[in-house]
Every structure is written in C-alpha cells, then in structure tokens.
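Residues determine shape. Next comes a sample protein:
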Amino acid sequence: MRYSFYTGCSMEATAQANLKSIEAVAHALDLQLEEIPDWNCCGASVASGVVGDFTQQVMTGRNLAIAEPKGLDVVVGCSSCYLTLAVTNKRFQEDEHFKARANEALAAGGYHYDGTLRVRQFLEVVINDVGFEKVAQRVKRPLKGLKVAGYVGCQTVRAIPYEFDDPEYPVLLDRLMESLGAVATDFPMKARCCGSSNALAGTEIVVDSIHKIFDSADRGGAQVIATPCPMCQMNLDAYQRRVNKVHGTNFNMPILFFTQLMAIAFDLPPETWALKYNIVSPSAALASIGVSA
C-alpha cells in the first residue's frame, strides 16, 4: 500500500523518535511511505495567530498541491500537522470561495489544488488499513504485562470528529496496545489537552494540565504513556520534572510514541526503537517485561 507522507517539522527535530519508529513500523507492515518533495511547514500551533488562518491554510495547501498529482492518500505522523492538513483539505473540498481565493494565492508560486486527496493520521492507517489482527500476527516480542496508558490527546481524534474514533472517549489506541500484548489501563484523561504550545509563553498552564494527566495515568496503574502526538510527547516528557517540583509529586513515567512500542513488539532492530531521544528513561518499565533497553 502506497501513501504520500508529510513528515512535518517536529519529526526532524524534537520528535525524531516518532519519525524513526514510524518509518520502521511502516516498512514492517508493508506500508510504502513516499515523502512529499519540498514540503513546507504547515504552520501548526502558532502560525495562525501570527499571520492568520487564511495564510496558514494556503501554506498547508501548497503541500497538498505538491502531493495531488500522485493521487495517494496523504499520511501524517504529527497530530498538530494532521489537524492542520485535514482541516485545510476539508475546506478546499467544501468551501468554493475559499478554494478560489487560496488557489489564486497558490498560483503565485505555480501551484493549484483541486481538493481530491484524503488526509490521514498514521495511527488511523495502522488501525484501518492494516488492522489489529495483522498487527498481532507481526508481534514477535509481546509486551505481555506492560501497563500502558493510551494518550490520544486533544487533536488526533478531534481534527475531523468521528473520522476514525470517538472524539471524547477514544478506544482504538488502547485496542492497538492490546494487540501488542500490553495491558491498556483505565485513563479518563486520554483525550485531555496537554497545554500545547502554551509551553512557550505560559509554562504554568502546561505544568497544571499535565499534572492532571500524570495523576490520571498513575491512578490507573500505568507504567508507560503512549501517544501519537509529538507536542503531547514533548510536553509530558520535558516538563515531568517541573511537575514534580511544583506539585510535590514523584512521577517517573516514560512517554513513548505508540510506534516505538510497536517497533519493540515487532522485535525490530533496537535503533528503530529510538529510545535515546526520550528524556524519562523507559528502561525500568521495559525491564519489567524482560526487554533490555
């Protein structure tokens, strides 16, 4: 199965673990990801507040215009990028006035987008195009007994509500973790916002938000939090020590991309697990199920 692949900025910087594990898992599942050439930043998180929604969506539309001639579904690994591309794509498809104005702007660079593509999150592709049964068949090193809190975050399932999971009570990431042999823990905060880019100017907002998330995961007995979202992963990983200092807690919860756990369960080469990029080490949690990291 072939797809156009939009990597996005984060996966070449703070979320390299996401990119490395996605590429490895995709190869193992015979998913051919073809990177969109000369892609540009989609403007997720902050651009719309600086240059406005229209300019941001034209920026995003350029990526879709480049991908359109292939006619392949556009797969996105970053939840923020997925939100931006999916919403922009939907606007091209449903708002003729916007489409005309956006294509007028794109024409200045020699681009045009007709809105014929489908934008998809990599998590959704694994679930719907591969399926839980085939994922389970690929497992060679079951994560038996590992207690995982599946943290979907606020963007992945709300970009296009009900596109592939319930936006308020998502369950499919849990089912995917179970197909790897892990135990999906009770986690009421699985779709709660981590504070997103407030980390830049309102650190206290992020610290308060993720404290509640950690508390929820901890109460459910989780050893690891798994997420598809680079922003969620970075905030929870980077600010965990700050949470402990401010709230007097002692959380030591590894924050992994779900694809890192898939790479481990598939028994892919350890470099594809990309664990060296994690701030909070998952070594103890993985050692509990006999995995040396």
